[in-house]
Amino acid sequence: MTTSARERVAAFWDDHTARWLRGEDPMPTPLAAWFDSYQGVGSGTPTRDGFPEPYHGDLLGREHTPRMVVLGLNPGEYRPQFQSRDGIFAREIKEKYGSYSRWQTTYPYNRPPWTDIIGRNRYYQARLTFTRNWLQDPEADHRDLLIFESYPWHSKLITGPLRPPAEIIDAFVWQPIAELPVGEVFAFGRPWDSLAQALRLPVVSMLGAGGRHYGSAVPSRAVRVYGLPSGQLLVVEWHAGSAGPPSAKETALLRSVLTGVLNSADDAPPRPRVAGSSGAAPTAATAGRSSS
């Protein structure tokens, strides 16, 4: 039976996480190449002591189809209390929810016990606020937001370039995003601009610092718009002193400018791909082959 890219990706990571929770360290093709594509040192050294977190949110739309997609670099610092094999989140996946994809529909970093022990997740809250501002919907909530990581293993810092192979990002990130009803995909922080260039994405527009002035009140703000294989747009934004999303006022300005970019290109709104769009996407069967 033909499955969608989202279903294939979810099944791949569900299988991988289940094996990891059983004490294995599976690295099926193409995970070894993905893991080796970042060579961090010191506090930036990646670890496989915690389970990888390739995405955050309801990938399959079991409860609600996401209306906003944001890209991250990696899932951040490894916290054994939560992410080790006997950690709180590992036990939740294994004993309560049964799979990584089901567990992610509960938005674990935005609820207890994480918020009780670690505190409010400012990274997540900033992106949820941006979601509400961009959608012009103050009622938008965690169900509307889906985050993909370019590198799914934990490290406290990023201390070197991220160079994930383009075919891996296509299979694990671009293809599932292409099935979602979103016209724009967002990434915040300059490292994603370097990553977009390394992935050889075509430039659609250069706005702000180093490009065409568009009225931003922040002189250092730069916006780069890239085309994705689906016809959707990747919008990368950064400014001095912060890797977070823009304010509500700056978001409204950016929305109006991007509408003009689309209109000037005489483009119709991108359509999500149909299910089963490519055989290159990962499948659960590939988890049976270990490459390390």
TrEMBL record:
Biased composition (Low complexity): 275-292
Region (Disordered): 263-292
Name of protein: Uncharacterized protein
